Amino acid sequence: MEPPVILGIESSCDDTAAAVVAGGALRSNVVASQRVHAGFGGVVPELASRAHQRLIVPVVEEALAEAGCTRADLTAVAVTYGPGLAGSLLVGLSFAKAFAFGLGRPLIGVNHLEGHLYSVFIEGPRPPRPYLCLVVSGGHTQLMLVEDGLRHTLLGKTRDDAAGEAFDKVAKLLGLGYPGGPVIDRLAQTGDPAFRAFPRTRLDGYDFSFSGLKTSVLYYLNRFDEAGRAALLERHRADIAAAFQQAVVDVLVEAVRRAVADTGVRHVAITGGVSANSGLRAAAEAAAAQDGFTLYVPPLAYCMDNAAMIAVAGHIKWEAGRTSPLTLTAEPALALS
């Protein structure tokens, strides 16, 4: 039997992406990022959906060409159907449904968070199940237990801002660009994390909260008048970035360490856009060495939104016999079950 060839499509936010996985191995991964949002300090949903409409066909064609396959070679089409921006999801889902129907191929709906959970299966060592997975991005901060049979148990989640969202908001306070996470990470590498003791919010269980941390940075900056704040940022912007980042990293890594101790699960993945953060990676690696668990973090290319993770998740669902009807609808607030 020929290995399954899965086309994955991702359009949940502002990246139009397509990828091909054959027999579980990545053959292509194409991402078209939308730079139009930078001037607005965040993603503009209407502009995002229009860009997806313009980009979806050439991106899919490029992914097929890069993989060296034709439409007829495809076994199934996997696509993100939530969570995300409604208009953006509809573009990718509508295209995937029509594409699958026209080819007479099955459709596989993939939860965007499933993609992140299985992004550590794209390249490099794969964690055995069960494993713990911390998903940290601009829209999500969740700690999951991933087991065989596509079973996922939510252990903890943010009660307010996601970690990546907090990075973006603090970056705006510091007069930095969007997206703020990569800029803060670069600045923090030259700053002093002990410059300011910002609060670490620790809740019962494994839940997170970053709203208070963000507000603490705001209140600190508001202690100065306009001239004083400008002078402070000129001299200590990198120090404030480092102190803020350290607070976020401490909270995330502490939750992982407690979960490892409580569950006895010795394999841990950290995924999502914030998993690209150098401070988080270093702290997680140090914790893994000290506590004796094995850490899995995707290569940088697969931390951000991409279709490779959707295609890989689609391959896993195909092997489990999970397909979706063509009546599948976009679900912007889709939860992971």
Written description of the protein model:
The protein is an alpha/beta fold and 337 residues long. It folds into two domains: 5-118 and 302-319, ATPase, nucleotide binding domain (Nucleotidyltransferase, domain 5); 128-297, ATPase, nucleotide binding domain (Nucleotidyltransferase, domain 5, 2-Layer Sandwich), CATH 3.30.420.40. The protein has helices at residues 45-67, 86-103, 112-117, 163-173, 180-188, 211-221, 226-263, 278-291, 308-319; strands at residues 5-10, 15-22, 25-33, 76-82, 107-111, 131-136, 141-147, 151-157, 267-271, 294-296. The strands form two sheets. Strands 3-2-1-4-5 form a five-stranded mixed β-sheet, sandwiched between helices. The chain has a five-stranded mixed β-sheet with strand order 8-7-6-9-10. β7 (141-147) and β8 form a beta hairpin. α4 runs parallel beside α6. The longest helix is centred in the C-terminal third of the chain and has 38 residues, at 226-263. The two termini are 31 Å apart. The relative contact order is 0.18.
Summarize the structure.
With 337 residues, this protein is of the alpha/beta class. It has helices spanning 45-67, 86-103, 112-117, 163-173, 180-188, 211-221, 226-263, 278-291, 308-319; strands at residues 5-10, 15-22, 25-33, 76-82, 107-111, 131-136, 141-147, 151-157, 267-271, 294-296.
